[in-house]
Design a protein that fits this description.
Radius of gyration: 21 Å
Number of helices: 17
Strand content: under 5%
Length: 333
């Protein structure tokens, strides 16, 4: 099995390194479109980015699927139980990066953490970091923009998760959790089942089948939108509404991003196109984080376990943190 994986990785690399030249050949030689034209730029962007992002996504999901095999919900709950609040916020945010949970998992996770005695603020650090610091987005950003942008995304996302969880913990809002949650008794967590190397590889392949099978259409749609922006939107236009000079651009980006609901794989190509057209990094980063970390569907799900005031505080604190981070990076970069 391992030699098959090695051969697959070599084949993956050989295909990946020739994508750009293949896209140029398809656009210019086969379709006869000048690469400098609006349509040629849009088609070239789409033909190059679609296989590139899907190949990166497949490789990332496979690797992360293996990593996730080490972190079951029971093990995550056990790691966080009994930790001090400040250390718990940091540990919870770090665990949020590598654990297989999103906003759809919010209700069972929240119940499990609260009934295990994990402080409310620590629970929120985890719930913020899990969707916001998305490992797929992290590696796609690294592949598309380099390690600096990926490191900025990782550092700011972790900072927001840790700080916002700590603030919510200081506000002492346990009374705004629905009463029935506290009436549930946490069961004992038994030992995790042993998983051998072959089983972990199978889990990685299953992750590829499940996740890529679900999100590929969003990737293609996101790249199509990005291609339209890349080919037809004037650079000066994007710079005027999302550039550093517009003080209102970051709050507006967050306001626009919250009602949207997209996964990280679908939003990254749009981020790439916006940056290429002159949008400021801080503004685009705020937009991406608000789309990934805050959404109306998430609020509806959380309403099952949280009262409206705590949901409002959660959204308000996280949105404020995202706006501050976006403004900060527009000032210093």
């Amino acid at each position: 099995m391992w030699w098959l994986i090695a051969v697959g990785l070599v084949a993956w690399w050989l295909v990946y390194r020739h994508l750009e030249s293949a896209a140029a050949w398809f656009t210019h030689s086969l379709c006869g479109l000048p690469l400098e034209s609006h349509l040629g730029a849009a088609v070239g962007f789409f033909v190059f980015e679609t296989p590139k992002v899907l190949m990166l996504l497949t490789l990332i999901v496979f690797g992360v699927g293996i990593v996730r095999s080490f972190f079951s919900p029971e093990r995550t709950r056990r790691i966080l139980s009994g930790k001090g609040e400040s250390a718990g916020n940091v540990l919870a945010a770090l665990l949020g990066i590598v654990t297989p949970f999103c906003s759809c998992s919010a209700v069972p996770l929240f119940i499990g953490f609260v009934t295990a005695g994990i402080p409310l603020g620590v629970t929120f650090s985890f719930l913020i970091a899990a969707p916001m610091v998305n490992e797929v987005a992290l590696v796609l950003l690294f592949g598309l923009f380099g390690w600096k942008v990926a490191a900025i995304y990782l550092g700011t996302g972790l900072g927001i998760a840790i700080l916002c969880g700590w603030i919510i913990g200081r506000l002492k809002m346990e009374k705004h959790v629905e009463d029935w949650v506290y009436q549930i008794k946490a069961g004992d967590v038994g030992p995790d089942e042993a998983v051998d190397a072959a089983a972990r590889v199978r889990l990685g392949l299953e992750s590829v089948k499940e996740i890529v099978g679900k999100v590929w259409i969003y990737v293609v749609l996101g790249i199509a939108v990005g291609a339209g922006i890349h080919g037809y939107v004037p650079e000066n236009f994007m710079a005027s509404i999302m550039g550093k000079g517009a003080w209102w651009s970051v709050p507006l980006a967050v306001i626009i991003g919250v009602p949207m609901y997209s996964n990280a794989a679908g939003i990254i190509p749009i981020v790439q196109a916006l940056l290429g057209k002159g949008a400021a990094l801080g503004t685009v980063l705020a937009f991406m984080m608000s789309v990934i970390a805050l959404s109306l569907p998430e609020a509806v799900i959380l309403r099952k376990v949280l009262k409206p005031r705590l949901i409002a505080v959660f959204f308000g604190v996280v949105a404020t943190g995202i706006i501050l981070i976006g403004c900060l990076f527009n000032l210093i970069m």
